Amino acid sequence: MDKTRKILLSEFYGACIITLIIIGVYELGLVLPGNWADVESAKMVSLQFLMQLLTLAAIPLALFLFKIGYVQTLLQSDESHVSRKLLVWGSVRLMLLCLPMIANIFFYYAFGDAVSFFYLAVILALSLFFVYPSKKRCEHECSLDNPEHE
After folding, report:
1. How far is Cα of residue 28 from the mean position of the Cα atoms in its chain?
2. Quick one: pLDDT at residue 146?
3. pLDDT digits (tens, 9 = 90+) for 61-115
4. How many Å apart are CA 96 and CA 31, to the nearest integer?
5. Cα–Cα distance for residue pair 96/143, rounded to 1 Å
């Protein structure tokens, strides 16, 4: 297993573990859900709208990140650092989904089981399996595996 794959897997599992820790802390009663429940509803609705917008923007961006011209040009410009650049952009791709997922799980419990945050976290968690940046997938999406490129 190469270094790039180990790092990406550790980021993937790390985000999943952080999410499970948040769930465990609240479900075991170590912290009681709803500690932000007294926040006025306009602020909560605004935060829900922001997280919905962030989720709806993050998923397609993560899916098509390696199709963006800037990223493709950056990856194809210097072949000596392709693995390092793939790692950086693969990490960006993962974090586009993992960070909002963790935030949504936290908000779900912080606002006292506000289910819209939970649904957004589930959507992001399911999306992780479609955008996991394996080296082969990233090289294919950037046309780095194309013999004409060499």
Report:
1. 26
2. 59
3. 988 888 888 887 877 776 666 677 778 888 898 899 999 999 999 999 998 878 9
4. 27
5. 22
52 pLDDT tier (thresholds 50, 70, 90): very high
Q: How far apart are CA 140 and CA 146, in angstroms?
A: 8
pLDDT tens sequence across 106-145 = 999 998 878 999 999 999 999 988 887 666 666 666 665 6
C-alpha distances in Å from residue 73, one per residue of 66, 93, 109: 10, 17, 42
Six token digits for residue 148: 């004409």
Q: 141 near 135, Cβ under 8 Å?
A: no
What are the start-end ranges of the H helices in the chain? 3-27, 41-63, 69-77, 82-110, 115-131, 135-141
CA distances to 37, 63, 88 from 6, rounded to whole Å, are 40, 21, 13
Residue type at position 148:
E
Q: What CA–CA distance (Å, rounded) separates 129 from 38? A: 36
Alpha carbon distance, N-terminus to C-terminus of the chain = 24
